[in-house]
């Protein structure tokens, strides 16, 4: 294999890994520790729980 081919494979693997990490991080930020979606929570209920 030529050096260009090796660099192409390495860049492809790095791109796939970085894409996976970014998507996983975005997905994990949408949920709290209990598995509830943060964007669907009723914000008034959260305020009542904190008080």
Overview of the molecule:
The chain is mostly helical. The chain has one domain (3-50). It is built from two helices and no strands. The radius of gyration is 20 Å and the shape is rod-shaped. The termini are far apart.
Q: What's this, in brief?
A:
It is built from two helices and no strands. The protein has helices spanning 3-29, 43-50.
Helix content: 55-70%
Number of domains: 1
Q: List segments where confidence is low: pLDDT < 50 over at least 5 consecutive residues.
A: none
Tally of strands: 0
| Residue share in β-strands | under 5%
Overall morphology: rod-shaped
Please give the structural blueprint.
Elements: H1 3-29, H2 43-50
Keywords:
2 helices; 69% helix; single chain; 51 residues; mainly alpha
């Amino acid at each position: 294999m030529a050096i260009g081919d090796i660099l192409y494979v390495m860049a492809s693997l790095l791109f796939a890994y970085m894409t996976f990490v970014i998507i996983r991080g975005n997905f994990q930020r949408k949920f709290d520790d209990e598995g509830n979606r943060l964007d669907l929570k009723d914000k008034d209920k959260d305020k009542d729980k904190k008080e």
